[in-house]
Design a protein that fits this description.
CATH topology: Hypothetical Protein Ta1238, Chain: A
Distance between the termini: 51 Å
Low-confidence stretches: none
Structural class: mainly alpha
Radius of gyration: 17 Å
CATH class: Mainly Alpha
Oligomer: single chain
Strand order of the largest sheet: 1-2
């Protein structure tokens, strides 16, 4: 199987289920932004170690599932695959990870600028890409049916990535740059 099919040369792309849409369709933008978030989280995972690597890997799988849900406007394909589910248990896992790391951090008393250690800076970058993905998914939801749990997951994920960035910088001994 070749990686190039030439089917997108006319500016369209295929969705799960077989429909073709323009490459600038809001649905394609939404799952494309989720894919970009997944890639930046992969960059952070490459810098991470230990339990953080496992956490980020799980998040990447969740984002792949979210992308599949978004690429499937009829919900016919993704609904048949259990690993494509987006559940409240996944959101609770993110919340538990937030709570665990926040216990190790000093209270947040000011806005902080993104940066710090290479891992912390990459996690901040991932947070901003996830926020963009969330905006794209919300925009799509104004035109099409989007599972509400997807927006909740992305919102909580951006919170987690902020806390993970602070946590990484704290562990690396990098002071937060306050605004």
């Amino acid at each position: 199987m070749k990686i190039y099919t030439k089917t997108g040369d006319s500016g369209t792309t295929g969705l799960l289920g077989g429909a073709r849409v323009p490459k600038d369709d809001p649905r394609v933008a939404a799952y494309g932004d989720v894919d970009e978030a997944n890639a930046v989280i992969g960059s952070a995972a490459a810098l991470a170690a230990g339990p953080l690597t496992k956490l980020l890997s799980g998040i990447q799988k969740d984002l792949f599932a979210i992308g599949a849900r978004l690429a499937d406007p009829t919900h016919a394909v993704a609904a048949r695959r259990a690993k494509a589910a987006v559940t409240s248990a996944q959101v609770r896992r993110l919340e538990k990870a937030i709570d665990a790391r926040e216990r190790e951090l000093p209270p947040l008393r000011a806005f902080v600028l993104p940066g710090g250690s290479p891992l912390g800076a990459t996690l901040h970058q991932a947070r901003t890409v996830v926020r963009r993905a969330e905006r794209s998914v919300v925009a799509l939801s104004h035109q099409a049916d989007v599972e509400p749990g997807i927006v909740v997951y992305l919102n909580r994920l951006s919170d987690l990535l902020f806390v993970l960035a602070r946590h990484a910088n704290h562990r690396a001994g990098k002071p937060e740059q306050r605004w």
